[in-house]
Design a protein that fits this description.
Largest sheet: 5 strands, antiparallel
Helix content: under 10%
CATH superfamily: Jelly Rolls
Order of helices and strands: EEEEEEEEE
Strand order of the largest sheet: 1-2-9-4-7
Number of strands: 9
């Protein structure tokens, strides 16, 4: 049986943060977008990289440090950013961090 929606009661509980690691889980994917939840333990990072598609990062829980091109900023739960394709960016968790990434095709 298929539905016309995807529902998650609490995104913060959709990923278990591994000790000394990073875990990601795809929550939704179709031809237009992909939603991935990430869990970072303190001190874990995604080093500088780019993506071919536009993307949105939403910090669900915890604190971290984001870099977009030459701009760096501290973030906490509730932070939201839209990135254009091919923008160099990185993520560093200063506490256990849960992040939703939406990639837009």
């Amino acid at each position: 049986m298929s539905t016309d929606y995807s529902f998650f009661q609490n995104l913060a509980t959709e990923v278990v943060i591994p000790k000394d690691g990073i875990l990601s889980r795809t929550l939704y994917s179709d031809a237009k977008l992909k939603a991935i939840i990430f869990g970072f333990d303190t001190g874990q990072e995604l080093s500088k990289h780019t993506a071919a598609s536009a993307a949105i990062i939403h910090i669900v829980k915890g604190e971290g440090h984001l870099t977009f091109g030459d701009v760096s900023t501290d973030v906490s739960a509730g932070a939201w950013v839209h990135m254009q394709p091919r923008l160099e960016h990185s993520v560093f968790a200063t506490t256990p961090l849960t992040m939703l990434l939406i990639m837009i095709n």
